[in-house]
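New to this. Please check this fold:
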Amino acid sequence: MSTPQAMSDDRQQYLEKKQFFQQLLTIYGRKPVLEALQNPRLRVYKLHLADSNRKDGIVAEILALAEKKGIQLAWHDRKALSRISKNGKQDQGVAADLELADYHPTTAITAET
């Protein structure tokens, strides 16, 4: 049986994790993701790729930059990537989560007011 302290610790960890993920902005498309990776001021938390992507051309450039920067890669089937990008018709098999310290989605702002 969980103690009240353990439940409190679990809740605190959940809230910290939730706050972190609320500071992520997901972008999609090969060119936007490549440009984000090339920008030294942007921090990419995770790169999402469709496992059906051919690993040549711009995808090869994206992979090389991600590897050079030590960015975590996640491979998905097209359907799963569409859920991440929320735009399967235009994501081109690539999405990236950007860490933006001052970013708050409009739903978070609305909830706070």
Summary: The longest helix spans residues 4-22. The CA atoms of residues 23 and 101 lie 6 Å apart. The chain has a mean pLDDT of 87.
